[in-house]
Amino acid sequence: MTTKFTPDHEYIRVEGATGVVGITNYAQEALGDIVFVELPSVGKVLKKGDEAAVVESVKAASEIYAPVSGTVTEINEALSGEPGLVNQDPTAGGWIYKIAIADAGELDGLLDDAGYADLTK
Amino acid sequence: MAQTSAEDLKITPLFDQHVAAGGRMVPFGGYNLPVQYPSGIMTEHKWTREQAGLFDVSHMGPSFLALTQPSGDAEADHAAIAAIIEPLISGDIAALKPGQIRYTLLLNETGGVIDDLMVARTTTPGTLYIVVNAGTKEGDFARIAAAAGDKAKLTRADDGALLALQGPEAVGVLSAMIPGVVELGFMQFGTFEWSGETLTIARAGYTGEDGFEILSSAATAPTLWAALLSDPRVKPVGLGARDSLRLEAGLPLYGHDLNETTSPIEADLGFAVSKRRREAADFPGASRILAERENGPARKRVGLIVEGAPAREGAEILDEAGAVIGVVTSGGFAPSLGKAIALGFVPPTHTAIGTKLAVSVRGRAQSAEVVATPFVPHRYFRKSS
């Protein structure tokens, strides 16, 4: 299982032909307490870089972009009632949506663990 | 995103304390100030509502306006200094007793608000204590100094520190250090000796809670900050929670809910136009303000509870038919309520409590309802006197 990262602090965990997308621990710390998550609708077709979701902290709204192109297959409904999951556990319970990856080749353009660690150090 | 370089920013006498406490420093009003500490805005907000939050508000503009040649007759000197400031503002300053603070408005000739500020009468004859907002202080001070001419001298005190201790435990904490502060009621102030320094302490604030604002010298500020924080009931609180607390308290923020086009009546601050001043119609913009008071303004500030995502400043307010009727001027998440709230301006036809409206967030209409403000009840300590 591979996880890739964008310079905008989204992660995509690749599980076969599907990617699980959320924001990194670094991003949730920077944003502070998340109070609302606007989820995409299932079936939405996204191009790499499209706005896919919005996370709102007490202070501000931040857009979450699609790390790769594809179709939204599932959303994390738990975030509607408990947006703070993004803070508590951004990579497990705080995932935002799943995407059917249209072009696996786009993953190659993303950062790997070392690259992302380098960006945020 | 526009960035102000760190070199352009001023720091307060408590900068090192903020950094040591892990404060996330951001530019605000020309100063480098903590938006939050590691515990986060939500925790800091709730702590202030339940215990006591300590804020560095040294970016604000405390000052003293004193007659250059006081006669020594306290009442005559007060009348003389009141007569200098009153032509600029909406409040009755002449009627203040020593130690009393008034929230008032600096107005332009068209009745717009140049700033909202506190004016207080000290126990020194012919001297006022005035606190203005950070973002407007240069203009405010120039305006006041010009009005004073050679009759009075304005002395800035914004080279020192202004600390705010806010919350239900604030009085317990501060009175353990300075017993005399229990004598102050809401909107009263005095001077108190502490650790060899005279502090100016006001029972006032910007959170809706009981609390104090303490003016100290820059040299004493770190010791005072540390002494307050040594009480387990006190935690430092940043600008993020300061904003969410004042929003829940329904208090307008200058530059957002108020600006030079907003009249006091539109902003629902009619109480700040004192009765004597109204009757004399002797303040800037009196014709507009009195006409609006009589016939109603074109728009009025309301509080909204918003369903779903927070509606931020600039979000359009829609009526039930979907027509744009107004704009949100402050909005965010209310930690005490667990929902989104906003302040905004709408026509007087849509200000009744319970009116169903909508706000446009990212192009989608979300339900909103006009509610009474404050959103969270004020808990000021009022003395009956």
Automatic annotation (TrEMBL), chain A:
GO terms for biological process: glycine decarboxylation via glycine cleavage system; protein lipoylation. The modification N6-lipoyllysine is found at K59. Binds 1 lipoyl cofactor covalently. GO terms for cellular component: cytosol; glycine cleavage complex. Residues 18-100 form the Lipoyl-binding domain. Its cofactor is (R)-lipoate. Keywords: Lipoyl. The glycine cleavage system catalyzes the degradation of glycine. The H protein shuttles the methylamine group of glycine from the P protein to the T protein. The glycine cleavage system is composed of four proteins: P, T, L and H. Belongs to the GcvH family. NCBIfam families: gcvH (TIGR00527), PRK01202.1 (NF002270). PANTHER family: GLYCINE CLEAVAGE SYSTEM H PROTEIN, GLYCINE CLEAVAGE SYSTEM H PROTEIN-RELATED. This is Glycine cleavage system H protein.
UniProtKB/TrEMBL annotation, chain B:
This is aminomethyltransferase. Transmembrane segments: none annotated. The keyword Transferase applies. GO terms for biological process: glycine catabolic process. Keywords: Aminotransferase, Transferase. The keyword Transferase applies. Its EC number is 2.1.2.10. It is an enzyme of class 2 (transferase). One of its GO terms (cellular component) is glycine cleavage complex. Residues 299-376 form the Aminomethyltransferase C-terminal domain. One of its GO terms (molecular function) is aminomethyltransferase activity. Substrate binds at E213. Belongs to the GcvT family. Residues 14-276 form the GCVT N-terminal domain. It catalyses: N(6)-[(R)-S(8)-aminomethyldihydrolipoyl]-L-lysyl-[protein] + (6S)-5,6,7,8-tetrahydrofolate = N(6)-[(R)-dihydrolipoyl]-L-lysyl-[protein] + (6R)-5,10-methylene-5,6,7,8-tetrahydrofolate + NH4(+). PANTHER family: AMINOMETHYLTRANSFERASE, AMINOMETHYLTRANSFERASE, MITOCHONDRIAL. InterPro entries: GcvT, GcvT/YgfZ/DmdA, GcvT/YgfZ_C, GcvT_C, GCVT_N, TrmE/GcvT-like.
